[in-house]
Amino acid sequence: MQILETATSALRSRMTQRVSTSKPSDAGIKKWELYRYLCTAKGDYGLNDRCLTVLNSLLSFLSDDVITSKSKLVVFPSNKLISQRAHMMPESTLRRHVSSLIAAGLITRKDSPNGKRYAHKSREGEIELAFGFDLAPFFNMGSEIKSAADRILDEQRAVKRLRDEISITAREMAKSFTDAAVDGSDNRYMQFRDVVHSIPRKASLNELKAIKANLDALLSELAITLTNIDNVKEMSGNGAQIERHIESLTESLLEETCKISDLKETVSDFEAQKPDVSKAESISLDLVLRACPDIQAYSTAGIRSWRDLVLVSKIVSGFLGISKAAYIDAVRIFGLERASAVIAGILQKSGVISCPGGYLRSLVEKARTAGFSVSEMLMLNLKSSSYQ
How far apart are alpha carbons 90 and 242 in whole angstroms? Predict the structure, then answer.
């Protein structure tokens, strides 16, 4: 008996700690508005979407949309009725999620003597005493839930803003590398590539702050390099000589791209002998950019045409460690535009690809035997990004 009393006392103590003792004010709380706040802050309470579905079902049994201190907050539907309003959730699953809501302190059980859910009503039909699920704790925690939701929304806005700032900084970095004619083996160039590739798809605010700080530090180093280059130009009387030594990376890439464009004619005989199924595919630039948005960060002026994508993808191939031979081989098989789309796709999934160069070669081999489709790759990327 003493053990039972001790256990009962401990349980009551835990429930007292979890459930707020405040009550809805006379001004009232809009139940669906508070529910939406909880949907935002569900992680803070250890809830998933199925738990919220069950709570939605329970809230629907309250007759009042605006809850005040006078509202009756005990609902007593059967499991069958709750299941029907919870999109026919199985009763075993229903009980599990009800337990989660109780553990989170959002609802409590008000059991009848026989364990059934029902209500005593007056002659006028007014509920005098009800046994079932008490939703009062949910409304008592209204201010706490709203504060948690506001904090999360503020953090989400800060994360989005910081992501935009990182994207802009990355573009400035790419332009700085171009202006400084930095070689692909340069340590700062490799650090920049590593930092950009380390950005998680669902990064926290602190993670993004650290990434932004690293990019800012690298950008400052490049700014010093550019200043030194400008000083050399001013001190030298032979501007043409300096121009030859400090050739613009963009111009170099443009020349290489033109050479690769000429490659189409060079390999025309090869393509005529061995049809490439990927050539029959029709993909749009819009599809590439929607499925692979990360490549936009490497463009200084935005990607508005296939030519822009080709130039940027050539830069990105260097960041990814893809050799020139592998790049040209991909162009031979896919064509210049589709090869650029494939590189954009590899960049988009760089977080899970350990060796981008080897991965590109494997896709080329699959394409040779009609075992790879560029458009299917883009659609898979687009589908996966829609779930994030």
Answer: 76
Angle at 362 between CA 361 and CA 365, to 5 degrees: 90
Give the DSSP letter of residue 295: G
Per-residue pLDDT reduced to its tens digit, 26-71: 568 999 999 999 999 999 999 999 999 999 999 999 988 999 888 8
Domain formed by 2-140, architecture:
Orthogonal Bundle (1.10)
| C-beta of residue 374 within 8 angstroms of C-beta of residue 278 | yes
SS3 20: coil
- Which residue type does 117 have? R
Q: What does each C-alpha distance from 23 to 42, 74, 147, 152 come to in angstroms?
A: 21, 14, 16, 24
In tens, the pLDDT along 211-229 reads 888 888 877 777 766 665 5
C-alpha 96/C-alpha 355 separation (Å) is 43
* Half-sphere CA count of 370, side-chain side, radius 13 A: 6
Q: Where are the domains of the chain?
A: 2-140, 147-245, 249-386
**109 in helix, strand or coil?**
strand
Token pair of 280, please? 């029959």
